[in-house]
Amino acid sequence: MLKNAFYAQSGGVTAVINASACGVIETARAHSDKIGTVFAGKNGIIGALKEELIDTSLESSETIAALKHTPGGAFGSCRYKLKSLQDNRAEYERLIEVFKAHNIGYFFYNGGGDSADTCLKVSELSQSMGYPIHAVHIPKTVDNDLPITDNCPGFGSVAKYIAIATMEASLDIVSMCASSTKIFILETMGRHAGWIAAAGGLAGKTSEEPPHIILFPEVAFNEEAFLDKVDTSVKQCGYCVIVASEGARYANGDFLADSGATDVFGHKQLGGLAPTLAELIKSKLGYKHHWAVADYLQRSARHIASAVDVEQAYAVGKAAVEFALAGKNSVMPAITRLPGPEYAWHITEAPLNQVANVEKFMPREFISDDGFGITQAARDYLEPLIAGESYPPYRNGLPSYTRIVGQLVAPKTQRSFDVN
Amino acid sequence: MLKNAFYAQSGGVTAVINASACGVIETARAHSDKIGTVFAGKNGIIGALKEELIDTSLESSETIAALKHTPGGAFGSCRYKLKSLQDNRAEYERLIEVFKAHNIGYFFYNGGGDSADTCLKVSELSQSMGYPIHAVHIPKTVDNDLPITDNCPGFGSVAKYIAIATMEASLDIVSMCASSTKIFILETMGRHAGWIAAAGGLAGKTSEEPPHIILFPEVAFNEEAFLDKVDTSVKQCGYCVIVASEGARYANGDFLADSGATDVFGHKQLGGLAPTLAELIKSKLGYKHHWAVADYLQRSARHIASAVDVEQAYAVGKAAVEFALAGKNSVMPAITRLPGPEYAWHITEAPLNQVANVEKFMPREFISDDGFGITQAARDYLEPLIAGESYPPYRNGLPSYTRIVGQLVAPKTQRSFDVN
């Protein structure tokens, strides 16, 4: 009897995580002689713990194909991190119990560093419990912070969004800076790593062109140097565009956004990094400002996804199934950049024990000497990742995004399991 | 000797105001037997007052054509409002002086209600000063608040952006609401009129679908009803998506964003409407939230402009020149919707004295009974305006937006003029 597969989405969703799901399901369907049904966890790994398994075989081939152009997590996701084996072995045993009950021999976990760790542990424990499961991690994170893989699916699209948003907003502010707003701040995601903010740097090619300042979590915030650079930009260019990573922080590690910054009245500033920076500039330099916080818009912007990103997201899903069918275990399909002047990549195999719990930050050589910009090396790295436009189909002026039926299979384990 | 033309961009720029500029310049060039050079005001009307006139004849036809897909105000804009004739007749006389010096017989002013008023006054004063100028106003405002015209160029694209952003962010939050964030707030532009926020309503077709709540400036904010609706949405749907116009206000007219709302610590809340609402929901209902402030991103998002909007923006620019050449004066090309089941429109002529200083708000029949949504009448009005995608060309993953040369003509009036 063919082994079935389990697929789950983990952590914050992206514009292209469903493209990976599409890659998994279409590839499994293409190998129906070797692999049975793909069950998807409803709301991620919680769906496995609660035995809420979506039967993807009931989804039409049109729906599965449309996942490739649909943002968000079609099967639901969660930030549930399994505890360590020592602290909660019962959770891992529950996973194996559910997998066994549904004859699941393949575990595809689509997420970031935490899920790579879970994936690894499931594989190890399943061996020791005598029900070996092929566990393959599928990389996904807008933060681009996974090791080994050259980049993470999800990042290219958010990078493209931020680069375009920076470029467009800059054209707006430059139109009116002579007599009006002189400061524009765009707050981006990236709590620990500055990859997303760095992408804003692609909007301009020279130091005169916007953005004039990028704030990275990797560079300690220096208020004096920052204000000086803002002032210089306004005096030289007439305006200043700032792309700021939400993770911008002081040397002591405190985030600017919640470090107790106060407004001119001595009140604690609430509401995020962008208004904090805006208030700082206004109070110290007096410039009129505007700010935007893209928040979920940036990671759900499938309407302007990077074609390279969509292709890679699909490819890692496809490769995950091929790896599993080839008997591989505890691995992750990684995107490897090939040498040469033209961007080219292929999928390689990364051992999960080298992926789990490792965060990849912006290398210092990607950040300009003054800490406020990106270098040519960063451009060379980033530019290919935002290449190409992969537009979704439209109907009546809006993207035709799909929804799954989401039918659950009947539970078989005869017990419920509390997820805390 | 052929009369020259003067064109200026006024007020907040849009994704398609340059398409109107393109319409003006290309149409003038097509009638080079009847109209001379088009001079453009550098930074709007200030450019006329300071005699900083951009010679558009030095821009290549490729550059002018590319304006059609370039956001922002290519010639620069300003929020400078001419005072009344009584208060500062000198400003109007200066305009006529500059126009006369450069043999300008046509004045095309591309903006909102204020600029329509200026346009009218220039026409009137030029008559009385014995140097009659054909003044034609070209409608532009993302706020969609001009009268007579069925809609304003610039609005359709921001409406499309907000509808898509709402749809995409909703797919994001629904993916994770079971175990994580339950509230998403998108703050939109619209200080006085709720047209832009209303467009967010196009993202969902039924009351169950997001957005669950829209806040309009036209409807007094009722905190109790709002919190009740938020709570109901979360309990029924699992989450709540809110699209809030920056102009949302209390019954007494105070804006929520700066009405002295305080956080749970009793501190004055800074940073705009979205964080104010987020804090309110968190403190009263305890739900985890995310919020986005699109700010300039929404009105500069040429990458996802409405094809109908681009076409209409070009058409009003073209019609303005045709009106002027037909001897019309003190008029504005208006977009008139034709009756029938299929959306169709044509350009008609609106007298400026009926346009100037009149604001068009959302009619009550466009807003649902509970004040938190849009009606079918609103959908019927809005949907055609976001139809079609007018993608800009791309290079290396980024839109190929153009920049003008911007060469100024030599001044002729032999005097400077102070603009305050």
From TrEMBL, chains A, B:
<dbReference type="GO" id="GO:0005737">
    <property type="term" value="C:cytoplasm"/>
</dbReference>
<feature type="binding site">
    <location>
        <begin position="296"/>
        <end position="299"/>
    </location>
    <ligand>
        <name>substrate</name>
    </ligand>
</feature>
<dbReference type="Pfam" id="PF00365">
    <property type="entry name" value="PFK"/>
</dbReference>
<dbReference type="GO" id="GO:0003872">
    <property type="term" value="F:6-phosphofructokinase activity"/>
</dbReference>
<dbReference type="InterPro" id="IPR022953">
    <property type="entry name" value="ATP_PFK"/>
</dbReference>
<comment type="subunit">
    <text>Homodimer.</text>
</comment>
<keyword id="KW-0963">Cytoplasm</keyword>
<keyword id="KW-0460">Magnesium</keyword>
<dbReference type="InterPro" id="IPR035966">
    <property type="entry name" value="PKF_sf"/>
</dbReference>
<feature type="binding site">
    <location>
        <position position="12"/>
    </location>
    <ligand>
        <name>diphosphate</name>
    </ligand>
</feature>
<feature type="domain" description="Phosphofructokinase">
    <location>
        <begin position="8"/>
        <end position="323"/>
    </location>
</feature>
<keyword id="KW-0479">Metal-binding</keyword>
<protein>
    <recommendedName>
        <fullName>Pyrophosphate--fructose 6-phosphate 1-phosphotransferase</fullName>
        <ecNumber>2.7.1.90</ecNumber>
    </recommendedName>
</protein>
<keyword id="KW-0418">Kinase</keyword>
<comment type="pathway">
    <text>Carbohydrate degradation; glycolysis; D-glyceraldehyde 3-phosphate and glycerone phosphate from D-glucose: step 3/4.</text>
</comment>
<feature type="active site" description="Proton acceptor">
    <location>
        <position position="143"/>
    </location>
</feature>
<keyword id="KW-0324">Glycolysis</keyword>
<feature type="binding site">
    <location>
        <begin position="141"/>
        <end position="143"/>
    </location>
    <ligand>
        <name>substrate</name>
    </ligand>
</feature>
<feature type="binding site">
    <location>
        <begin position="189"/>
        <end position="191"/>
    </location>
    <ligand>
        <name>substrate</name>
    </ligand>
</feature>
<comment type="function">
    <text>Catalyzes the phosphorylation of D-fructose 6-phosphate, the first committing step of glycolysis. Uses inorganic phosphate (PPi) as phosphoryl donor instead of ATP like common ATP-dependent phosphofructokinases (ATP-PFKs), which renders the reaction reversible, and can thus function both in glycolysis and gluconeogenesis. Consistently, PPi-PFK can replace the enzymes of both the forward (ATP-PFK) and reverse (fructose-bisphosphatase (FBPase)) reactions.</text>
</comment>
<dbReference type="InterPro" id="IPR050929">
    <property type="entry name" value="PFKA"/>
</dbReference>
<feature type="site" description="Important for catalytic activity; stabilizes the transition state when the phosphoryl donor is PPi">
    <location>
        <position position="140"/>
    </location>
</feature>
<feature type="binding site">
    <location>
        <position position="246"/>
    </location>
    <ligand>
        <name>substrate</name>
    </ligand>
</feature>
<dbReference type="InterPro" id="IPR011404">
    <property type="entry name" value="PPi-PFK"/>
</dbReference>
<dbReference type="GO" id="GO:0047334">
    <property type="term" value="F:diphosphate-fructose-6-phosphate 1-phosphotransferase activity"/>
</dbReference>
<dbReference type="GO" id="GO:0046872">
    <property type="term" value="F:metal ion binding"/>
</dbReference>
<dbReference type="InterPro" id="IPR000023">
    <property type="entry name" value="Phosphofructokinase_dom"/>
</dbReference>
<feature type="site" description="Important for catalytic activity and substrate specificity; stabilizes the transition state when the phosphoryl donor is PPi; prevents ATP from binding by mimicking the alpha-phosphate group of ATP">
    <location>
        <position position="114"/>
    </location>
</feature>
<comment type="similarity">
    <text>Belongs to the phosphofructokinase type A (PFKA) family. PPi-dependent PFK group II subfamily. Clade 'B2' sub-subfamily.</text>
</comment>
<dbReference type="GO" id="GO:0006002">
    <property type="term" value="P:fructose 6-phosphate metabolic process"/>
</dbReference>
<keyword id="KW-0808">Transferase</keyword>
